[in-house]
Write a structure and sequence with these properties.
It contains four helices and six strands. It has about 210 residues and is α+β, with helices and mostly antiparallel strands. The protein has a domain of about 60 residues: Head domain of nucleotide exchange factor GrpE (Nucleotide Exchange Factor Grpe, Chain A, domain 2), CATH 2.30.22.10. It has a three-stranded antiparallel sheet. Strands 2-6-3 form a three-stranded mixed sheet, with no helix packed on it. Helix 3 runs antiparallel to helix 4. The longest helix is centred in the N-terminal third of the chain and has 69 residues. The protein is elongated, with a radius of gyration of 55 Å. It starts with a helix and ends in an 8-residue tail after the last strand. The relative contact order is 0.06.
């Protein structure tokens, strides 16, 4: 009857040995755990290094952007300076040569006057008068070429913006505030007034007075 306990003890040892067999399993948890524990510090250090390097990259981008903005500013400043200098030259040329076209148009008028003076001694009154008329036509053409027009408002309503009233004159035939006589013609250039016309303006006659 004694061998039975020994058999049970042997069976217990057999069972314990059977539990140790999974040590050969490559997917077992005991062998993988130490590897994970060893790798985690390296990952954290890499992330920390990348986090420290990122602000430096932003600073470099900011420096480059500032340099580009400075370069654009310098270019714009140089261009504005060139525009200012060019505008100054053009303004100076306009002051010096702005009347060049008008002067060219007036040269024939002077030639005509000079020729009329030279021929005055040997010419009669009719010839001199025709010469004066021809010179006046040349002058009118020169003024018209430059956009200069007469302001001759006789018979028109008085306009204080374009006419200068020399005096008032009673009139029974003209409406009040009408230009009766143009003492001196005015002139405008491209619709801008150069000189107002000097005029005599009508007014209502006194009672019992008619003209």
């Amino acid at each position: 009857m004694l061998p039975a306990p020994h058999a049970e003890a042997g069976a217990g040892r057999s069972i314990c040995m059977t539990h140790n067999v999974p040590d050969d399993d490559p997917g077992g948890t005991p062998s993988a755990a130490p590897s994970d524990a060893d790798d985690s510090p390296n990952v954290d250090a890499s992330e920390a290094t990348a986090a420290e390097a990122e602000p430096l990259s932003e600073l470099e981008l900011a420096r480059r952007e500032a340099a580009e903005n400075l370069d654009r500013y310098m270019r714009l400043a140089a261009e504005l300076d060139n525009v200012r200098k060019r505008g100054t030259r053009e303004l100076e040329n306009a002051r010096k040569y702005g009347l060049e076209r008008l002067a060219q148009a007036l040269l024939p008028v002077r030639d005509s006057l000079e020729a009329g003076v030279a021929a005055a001694e040997n010419a009669d009154i009719d010839a001199l008068l025709e010469g004066k008329r021809a010179t006046l036509r040349l002058l009118d053409a020169a003024l018209e070429q430059e956009g200069i027009a007469e302001v001759d408002p006789e018979g028109e309503p008085f306009d204080p913006a374009r006419h200068e009233a020399m005096t008032l004159q009673s009139s029974a035939t003209a409406e009040p505030n009408t230009v009766l006589t143009v003492v001196q013609k005015g002139y405008s250039i491209h619709e801008r007034l150069l000189r107002p016309a000097r005029v005599i303006v009508s007014q209502e006659p006194p009672d019992g007075d008619a003209q």
